[in-house]
Amino acid sequence: MCPGKYCIRNDNKRVVFLDKIIGRSKEKKELEDAFNSNEAEFIAVYGRRRIGKTFLIKHFFQEKKCIYLQMTGIYKGALNKHLSRFSKEIGEVFYRGASIKAPKNWMDALEELTHAIKQVSSNSKIVIFLDELPWMATRKSGVISAVEYFWNRFWADDKRIKLIVCGSAASWIIKKIIKNKGGLHNRVTRKIRLLPFNLNETSLYLRHLGYQCNYQQILRLYMMMGGVPFYLNQLKKSYSIDQNIDNLFFNSEGILFDEFDEVFLSLFEYSEQYKELITLIGRYKDGVPRNILDGKAKLTGKGGRLTSRLEDLEYAGFIESYIPFGHKKLGIFYRINDEYCYFYLKWIEPIKNQLKQNKAGRYWKNIVNTPGYFGWLGYVFENICYRHIVQIKKALNIEETSLASPWRYVPRKIGMEKGVQIDLLFDRYDAISICEIKYTDKPFVVDKKYADVLQQKIEVFKKISRTVKQIFLVLISAHGVKQTQYSKELIANVVTLENLFEKVVD
User: Fold this and answer.
1) Which residues constitute the domain of residue 141?
2) Is 214 helix (H, G, I), strand (E, B) or coil?
3) Contact 72/131 with Cβ under 8 angstroms?
4) Which long-range contacts (CB under 8 A, 24 or more apart) does 115-119 make?
5) Lowest pLDDT segment from 58-67, 201-210, 284-293
6) Contact 45, 57 (CB under 8 A)
7) Rounded to whole angstroms, how far apart are CA atoms 63 and 44?
8) Cα 292 from chain centre
9) Is the pLDDT of residue 213 over 90?
């Protein structure tokens, strides 16, 4: 890391380095338990690119009294470059910077590491951090078989050793390490999936960066960036939110302008197929069933290959799968779960060629307040609510084990009967909470017309689901509800933006 708080990258863009881990209380506890255990630990860490995996591990263990070796994979790096870098790390950490001859292969490299470990005091804990391991595991590299051998033969019996493997290619970590069917089968002692910040953690992070904004403004940023620390880190304190959006997203030199392509290229070997899938999923606001993807995906074949790639996208945190309440026969549905990806596909990708020709401009102001803008607000706020199910349950005093799911009814025959869409419901052991999700910039008003719509939804749901449970109607509204005679009669509970920002104890 560069000295001081700021570092200038080779592309002349400033990156802010923080010296404090924000949030991540559950993950820090897991790492603390692993560090203090009297057993060797094999920890797999995975999560979306830019989510802060390396920062968490590095800063957590650098504060500990231990020997810490970090080897970071090089994107598209050759085997000899990885081995040369690894030998230098061993020399720096174990031999006070002495030069070590680069090994010929990973078996020799890990043998050298094992020899160095044997020279260390029996009271010293040793952390081995293999960061971006998927980038080291090039074809015929042999790194996985080498790790497998040395873990089983030497390291697993050494209580000093805490081995951490990490990668942004989440599906690779899961399939090759966590669910390994060979010599590493069931060897992982702990797994940590690092997720984006929630709204509460995002608020803390922005405050730590010195970016001043209120809950409503933080929500707007979250709608475009999600809780991805690297993206939030790019905000300029002297810019308004709209200025930052234009500068980062709609400027062809902005750091988030090409991020979509770069992310998929770095994570997936066949990036175009994955981009096709997520683009298809993004066209369906209410989620898309698997059979439609079977029919419309042209670059990815049906069956196992499509299943595998959908799993990869879900492991990486770009999409989520779900089965709508009461509709198991319809199978699995998919929807985009990543705010940045949806924002990019909705607003940037359609005009990308135009933006390349005009490097600077105020495009965002021309989008705000258009019909498409309000539709996007509604969808993305709904998605954010799905991310904050735990906070909503807390606000409603609902047990954590309650099933949360959207619900939809589409009549088989066209006639007098209308279809119904329920944004979110909680199936409790004694009742069902039906939630309407509305994003407005002021308290939502339930008038007679809307009250009739809500009443119809409840009646159709009761009829189709045949439930005998008590029904509660909940309104999730950023700015609450303006009291009317209809809201008093129908709405049992109101969840507001403040509830979504609540800190939840892990």
Assistant:
1) 24-194
2) coil
3) yes
4) 116/90, 117/158, 117/160, 117/161, 119/94
5) 284-293
6) yes
7) 20
8) 25
9) yes
Is residue 281 a part of any domain in this protein?
no
Mark which of 130, 163, 194 sits at the end of a domain. Answer: 194
Per residue in 372-409, pLDDT (tens digit) is 999 999 999 999 999 999 999 999 999 888 889 888 88
User: Residue 327 in contact with residue 287, Cβ under 8 Å?
Assistant: no
CATH of the domain at 96: 3.40.50.300
Mark which of 194, 219, 238 sits at the end of a domain: 194
Q: 369: phi > 0 → left, psi -120 to 50 → alpha, else beta; which?
A: left
Domain assignment present for residue 161? The answer is yes
Looking up tokens 């338990």, which residue turns up?
33
Give per-residue pLDDT as tens, 78-126: 999 999 999 999 999 999 999 999 999 999 999 999 999 999 999 999 9
The region that residue 299 occupies, defined by phi over 0 for left and psi between -120 and 50 for alpha, beta otherwise, is alpha
d(CA 292, CA 281): 10
Q: Which residues contact 311 (CB under 8 A, 6 or more apart)?
A: 171
Closest to 78 measured CA to CA, from 148, 146, 123, 140 = 140
Q: For residue 11, what pLDDT is reported? A: 38
Q: Parallel, antiparallel, or unpaired for β 14-16 and 6-8? A: antiparallel
Q: Which residue has the tokens 């779960």?
A: 337
| Amino acid at position 406, single letter | P
Work out how many domains the chain is built from and give that number. Answer: 2
Residue 80 lies in a domain: yes
Decide: residue 163, CB within 10 A, 0-12 exposed, 13-18 middle, 19+ buried.
Answer: buried
Query: Is 214 a member of any domain?
Result: no
Token pair for 186: 């069931």
> What angle (nearest 5°) sits at the alpha carbon of residue 448, between those of residues 410 and 445?
95
